[in-house]
């Protein structure tokens, strides 16, 4: 028969909580720490995704979810009127400025000011253009024209519109900071200017022009941008609204989806990142479980007689389990909010520091935005940990019988009796063996001991892995991979990936300035030739198809069209064609064949890099091998080309005619170090190295993308000061030095160490709390036993020594586990990294053991001393009476 005793259970829970204030404090701290760890991890993961998503949006050019391209006003209005469209705006492409050479400058018109903010444009000064001669520009355009960043400056622009060359002088009515990540500078003119320029042209005229001139598609037409209620299945959403408007997607009306939202999906996430995040969540879950479980486990054992008394008055197993879980819920309600707040604060503080690991986010204001999913995830995982940790102790409390509970003493295990008889023999000889007694006490409750040892060991093992990882990074190898010589000068598009705008040429005046400095001991050049291709013969084409069949070539949205053209014979193999000073050639890693610089100098040989596909293709599976004859096609005096553009005007392909051919013999398959390439990954390509003499007669297509200098030690500071002064005045140029790379590398390892050591420290704190809670509770639970032992002659010092040895035993066992299991795990995990990271070489570190053991030993001594002092304040008689 059911009874309504819920109120009684609630009262018992609250009174039990009030009687266990020390336990409650430990539990709240443990739950809060678990919440901090979970929330910090989710904050950093979410913040990184926010940053990556925003960077992708900036690259795409807007925050919109999807859009249509090269549409008429009628098409745009019909599509935008769909009920599923929450918000829309549009721009009209007028043309591209021909006199802005360093960066693509698109001239547009938009009637809506909010369009600017959705394109990440914030005006530093001024407002929307009103007069016919007013324009909004960015700092890149002003810098190229040599104009100051201020209103009222006159901007000459030349562009083509409907086949006519237009030259105008505009006045700056607003300017904004240019975004290096964006693919182009956006210039906005007024409605008056657009109306006058458009004149009598109609949408039909613009649509006809698009069909007849695909290379100039989009001029005079609308690029419409749409926002939906959510980002789920954006491609289907935009196709649906196009169909609802009466058009066929792509064939009648081109569209695009903002892939910033697509790349943020879980299924598109990097497997390595997901593995690291999953590993962090598992470690935190395990750590939180260990301490919270141990706290409730010890609490149940401490209150076992209380639960037995409840059983004698009719309390059921389910009700006692509910009582324990209710206590856990109340403590979680206090600890989790504290953990969420502190964890979010930690994530917000650490995120900018973490993202500074690479220069990819330079120029971005990185800050963690409060997202409900961070708090929900942190609270959910913390709550799950508390529930999981309190579940087993609740079952134990509910399962104990009244008789067993009333006479409960921690269970002896098999093998203890032998230990007792040994101690008796030792005692008969008048000696007191505190260590044997401590080890015997340690084995009385092996489950509690295992949990405490696991919690302490986990922090040691994690610290060992982190510090071994940091100590295994090889600075010299890293620098050698990134730079040749002491300084490398080049275009900022090569030197810094964050500032790339497509240009690679190094300014001649910049090199002349560097050449004129004192202390230069060596100078080498790195060049690249564009408009060159590796011709595919029948054998190479068949091998390429085999590689594709094995899934070794990339087939994502950005690579599949180009790959299909190569497989069908419509296009030759693409890649960067490099040439280097002979002093740099030994830096190439030869994978197959041999590098004979004397023979290579003749100009009859070629070096091929490995093929970059979905994975690096091994030399034996290359489409060509050493000894094969290959034909290189290059752009010559009589060659020509034309661009194919999509509906939005973006170049999607370039077709070349009358290319010049020359045959070479493959000397070797090589791997080009990062320090000698353009730092740009492209799918399904094969880079090529030719002798520098092959580039000397082709000034039009060859560019010097890097020049390295070896400088005398005493002249390095002066040399760098000259470079710094020039690049400050000419921000499109840059340089890298060995010293700057060393600082970058040290900063990277410091961040790894900071995050890892912080996590290890928090876990160590949890382990110490676990140990402290276990020792204090153990002493309190066994105070009757201690009183009995003292009543038969054991002294305070002997008892204290036993407790100290017991604590030290926990640490000693944890240390042994760290040296064995920690060493093994670090070897397994980090040895794999040695095969993936060229500048990583596994080196086991003993330092974590040296740091952690003394700290833990100090705690092992201090905690029993303080706990015992609180217990011994009462006399032996009082402690014996308390247990009755």
Relevant terms:
single chain; 884 residues; alpha+beta; eleven-stranded mixed sheet; ten-stranded mixed sheet; 29 helices
Query: How would you state the average pLDDT, rounded?
Result: 79
Structural class: alpha+beta
Number of helices: 29
* Low-confidence spans: 263-270, 358-363, 409-431, 497-501
Subunit organisation of the chains:
single chain
- Main beta sheet strand tally, sense and closure: 11 strands, mixed
Residue share in helices?
40-55%
Instruction: Give the N-to-C terminal Cα separation.
Output: 35 Å
What value does the Rg take, in angstroms?
36 Å
Description:
The protein is of the alpha+beta class. 51% of the residues lie in helices and 17% in strands. It has 29 helices and 23 strands. Strands 11, 12, 13, 14, 15, 16, 17, 20, 21, 22 and 23 form an eleven-stranded mixed sheet that branches. Strands 1, 2, 3, 4, 5, 6, 7, 8, 9 and 10 form a ten-stranded mixed sheet that branches. The longest helix has 44 residues, at 738-781. Residues 263-270, 358-363, 409-431 and 497-501 have low confidence and may be disordered.
């Amino acid at each position: 028969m059911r009874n309504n005793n819920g109120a009684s259970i609630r009262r018992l829970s609250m009174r039990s909580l009030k009687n266990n204030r020390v336990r409650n404090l430990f539990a709240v701290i443990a739950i809060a720490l678990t919440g901090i760890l979970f929330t910090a991890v989710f904050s950093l993961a979410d913040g990184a995704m926010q940053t990556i998503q925003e960077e992708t949006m900036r690259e795409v050019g807007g925050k919109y979810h999807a859009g249509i391209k090269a549409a008429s006003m009628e098409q745009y209005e019909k599509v935008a009127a769909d009920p599923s469209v929450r918000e829309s705006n549009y721009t009209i492409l007028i043309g591209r400025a021909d006199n802005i050479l360093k960066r693509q400058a698109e001239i547009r018109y938009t009637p809506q000011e909010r369009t600017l903010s959705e394109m990440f444009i914030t005006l530093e000064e001024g407002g929307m253009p009103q007069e016919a001669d007013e324009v909004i520009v960015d700092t890149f355009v002003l810098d190229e024209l040599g104009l100051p960043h201020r209103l009222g400056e006159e901007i000459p622009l030349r562009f083509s519109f409907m086949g006519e060359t237009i030259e105008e002088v505009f006045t700056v009515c607003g300017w904004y900071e240019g975004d290096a990540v964006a693919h182009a500078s956006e210039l906005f003119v007024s409605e008056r200017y657009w109306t006058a320029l458009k004149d009598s042209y109609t949408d039909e005229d613009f649509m006809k022009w698009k069909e007849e001139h695909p290379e100039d598609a989009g001029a005079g037409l609308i690029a419409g941008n749409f926002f939906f209620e959510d980002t789920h299945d954006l491609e289907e959403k935009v196709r649906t609204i196009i169909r609802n408007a009466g058009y066929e997607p792509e064939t009648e009306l081109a569209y695009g989806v903002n892939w910033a939202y697509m790349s943020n999906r879980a299924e598109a996430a990097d497997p390595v990142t997901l593995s690291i995040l999953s590993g962090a969540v598992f470690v935190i879950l395990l750590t939180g479980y260990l301490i919270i479980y141990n706290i409730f486990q010890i609490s149940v054992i401490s209150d076992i007689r209380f639960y037995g008394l409840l059983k004698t008055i009719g309390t059921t197993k389910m009700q006692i389990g509910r009582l324990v879980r209710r206590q856990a819920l109340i403590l979680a309600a206090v600890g989790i909010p504290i953990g969420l707040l502190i964890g979010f604060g930690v994530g917000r503080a650490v995120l900018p520091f973490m993202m500074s690991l690479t220069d990819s986010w330079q120029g971005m204001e990185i800050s963690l935005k409060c997202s409900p999913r961070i708090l929900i995830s942190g609270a959910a995982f913390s709550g799950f940990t508390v529930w999981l940790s309190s579940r087993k102790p609740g079952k134990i409390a509910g399962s104990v019988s009244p008789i067993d509970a009333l006479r409960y003493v921690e269970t002896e295990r098999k093998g203890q009796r032998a230990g007792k008889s040994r101690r008796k023999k030792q005692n008969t000889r008048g000696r007191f063996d505190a260590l044997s007694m401590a080890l015997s006490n340690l084995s009385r409750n092996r489950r509690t001991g295992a949990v405490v040892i696991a919690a302490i060991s986990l922090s040691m093992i994690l610290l060992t892995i982190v510090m071994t990882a940091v100590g295994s990074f090889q600075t010299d190898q890293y620098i050698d991979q990134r730079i040749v010589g002491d300084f490398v000068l080049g275009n900022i598009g090569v030197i810094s990936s964050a500032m790339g705008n497509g240009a690679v040429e190094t300014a001649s005046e910049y090199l002349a300035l560097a050449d004129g400095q004192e202390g230069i001991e060596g100078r080498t050049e790195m060049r690249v030739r564009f408009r060159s291709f590796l011709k595919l013969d029948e054998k190479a084409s068949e091998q390429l198809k085999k590689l594709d069949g094995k899934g070794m070539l990339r087939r994502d949205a950005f690579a599949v069209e180009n790959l299909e053209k190569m497989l069908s014979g419509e296009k030759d193999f693409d890649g960067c064609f490099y040439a280097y000073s002979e002093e740099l050639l030994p830096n190439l890693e030869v994978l197959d064949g041999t590098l004979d610089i004397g023979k290579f100098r003749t100009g009859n040989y070629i070096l091929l890099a490995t093929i970059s596909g979905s994975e690096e293709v091994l030399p034996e599976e290359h489409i060509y091998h050493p000894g094969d004859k290959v034909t290189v096609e290059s752009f010559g005096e009589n060659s020509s080309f034309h661009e194919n553009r999509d509906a939005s005007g973006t170049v999607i392909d370039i077709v070349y005619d009358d290319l010049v051919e020359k045959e070479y013999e493959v000397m070797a398959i090589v791997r080009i170090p990062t320090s000698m390439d353009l730092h740009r990954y492209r799918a399904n390509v094969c880079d090529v190295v030719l002798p520098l003499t092959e580039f000397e007669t082709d000034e039009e297509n060859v560019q010097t993308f890097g020049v390295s200098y070896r400088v005398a030690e005493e002249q390095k500071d002066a040399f760098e000061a000259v470079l710094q002064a020039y690049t400050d005045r000419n921000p499109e140029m840059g340089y890298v030095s060995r010293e700057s790379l060393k600082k970058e590398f040290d900063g990277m390892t410091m961040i790894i160490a900071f995050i890892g050591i912080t996590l290890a420290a928090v876990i160590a704190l949890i382990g110490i709390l676990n140990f402290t809670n276990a020792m204090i509770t153990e002493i309190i639970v066994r105070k009757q036993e201690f009183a009995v032992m003292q009543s038969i002659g054991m002294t305070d010092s002997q008892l204290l020594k036993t407790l100290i040895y017991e604590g030290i035993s926990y640490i000693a066992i944890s240390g042994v586990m760290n040296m064995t299991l920690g060493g093994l795990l670090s070897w397994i995990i980090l040895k794999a990294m040695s095969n993936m990271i060229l500048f990583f070489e596994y080196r086991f570190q003993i330092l974590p053991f040296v740091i952690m053991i003394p700290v833990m030993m100090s705690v092992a001594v201090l905690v029993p001393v303080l706990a015992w002092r609180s217990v011994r304040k009462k006399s032996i008689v009082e402690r014996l009476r308390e247990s009755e």
